[in-house]
Amino acid sequence: MPHFAIIDAPSILGLRPTGVEHLPEALKAAGLQAGLNAEYAGRVEPLPYDPQRDPRTLILNPDALRAFSLKLAGAVAGVLRQNKFPLVLGGDCSNIIGIMLTLRRAGRYGLFYIDGHSDFYQPEAEPNGEVASMGLAIVSGRGPDVITDIDGLKPLARDEDIVAFGFRDTEQQRKYGSQDIRAAGIHSFDLEQIRASGVTAAAKQAIGKLLENGLNGFWIHLDADVLNDEIMPAVDYRLAGGLEWRELSAMLKTLISSGQAVGMNVGIFNPRLDNDGSIARQFVKTLIAGLGSK
């Protein structure tokens, strides 16, 4: 089992302050740190949020996102230098920028992106300018240079080194004019494909695609909205369908047992939409089952 080190990164710079910023406290209170026997590696303080869309880049908080990404990159690098497994608790999906910056500085790493949305919007198509809906586009080099080309390292991940897993927003992508993730060369496994082969088989196939490229390892991104809306309603952008608890734990076991995962981030769960804490407890139980099994 990896030696986990938790980093709190409650940034909502790529979304809005609706409650996602309370994710770290909620999951730790539900037993995540104790259940994984994880150490606490500190908190990366979020920068002030500006609700006004930047007219130059068409995104929210471009300069603050760049600055926060640099801070988060430093925190993740510190954990990796100790040969520990960073577990970054968001916050929204824009945390992936700082995380992949860390790995891009260190070598060639892949990204296993588990999300109910493809997060491949370009700024002009995203209705609110929220970078949380552009995560895969940004790290693959599509978007304004202020956040795609930090330290001159664009792209932070190559298309062929990325897996998009579990998305079910194809109709929304078409409605709003999102870029087509499949046409980009990113390895795409939507919910329908996963259902057809089974989550474990699909995860193994996806890992195989990544490992063909001689990577140093890969990062796991987990957005809570990949889960079935009936069991995970505590998210801001809800979609019908999704994975079940047992499927998520089985998938995480598969990823961890590959021996190639170097860290993971969790985002988008909104504790304000979980009135009695029961969703957080089940989420934590599932994470421990998936990550903590030898």
Cα end-to-end separation: 5 Å
Percentage beta strand: 5-15%
CATH structural fold name: Arginase, Chain A
Number of domains: 1
Describe it.
The structure is a single chain. The chain is an alpha/beta fold and 294 residues long. The protein has one domain: Arginase, Chain A (3-Layer(aba) Sandwich). It is 36% helix and 14% strand. The chain contains eleven helices and eight strands. The protein has an eight-stranded parallel sheet, sandwiched between helices. Helix 10 links the parallel strand 7 and strand 8. Helix 3 packs across helix 4, helix 9 runs parallel beside helix 10 and helix 10 packs parallel to helix 11.
Compact description:
This protein is α/β, with parallel strands linked by helices and 294 residues long. 36% of the residues lie in helices and 14% in strands. The chain has a single domain (4-291), classed as Ureohydrolase domain (Arginase, Chain A, 3-Layer(aba) Sandwich).
